[in-house]
Amino acid sequence: MSNHTGGCLCGQIRYRINAEPGASRICWCRDCQKIASNGTANAMFPSAAIEVTGTLARHDKTADSGNTVTRSFCPTCGTQLFSDSSGRAGLTVVRLGTLDDPSSIKPTANIWRASAPGWACVDTSLETHDAAPVPAKK
């Protein structure tokens, strides 16, 4: 099992993840563009596998999907670390740039590509979805 560590810019928040990542994507939705001024590189992990040291601030917003998305960030430096959605209980999105080794997980897809600005550097070798990908049927 993988062990990933990371934290915020100022060091107030640290985390450890004891799990393998699920989906890893670059998201071009307008919300991600607003929090990063670009697309965000993310991976999903089981929420229970993430141990956080420090106190996170949170912001809730209704997404275009209708789900409530809770974004967690450092209250001191503002680093966006995680997001959770009412539409995927038990899974947490981790911002890959906050990992101590951000190269340890490579995104495999672009999502919300239709929302990307014309100047976006989109990796065309990755699977691409114009909006949110359709979840696999169980």
TrEMBL record:
<keyword id="KW-0862">Zinc</keyword>
<dbReference type="InterPro" id="IPR006913">
    <property type="entry name" value="CENP-V/GFA"/>
</dbReference>
<feature type="domain" description="CENP-V/GFA">
    <location>
        <begin position="4"/>
        <end position="120"/>
    </location>
</feature>
<comment type="similarity">
    <text>Belongs to the Gfa family.</text>
</comment>
<protein>
    <submittedName>
        <fullName>GFA family protein</fullName>
    </submittedName>
</protein>
<dbReference type="Pfam" id="PF04828">
    <property type="entry name" value="GFA"/>
</dbReference>
<dbReference type="InterPro" id="IPR011057">
    <property type="entry name" value="Mss4-like_sf"/>
</dbReference>
<keyword id="KW-0456">Lyase</keyword>
<keyword id="KW-0479">Metal-binding</keyword>
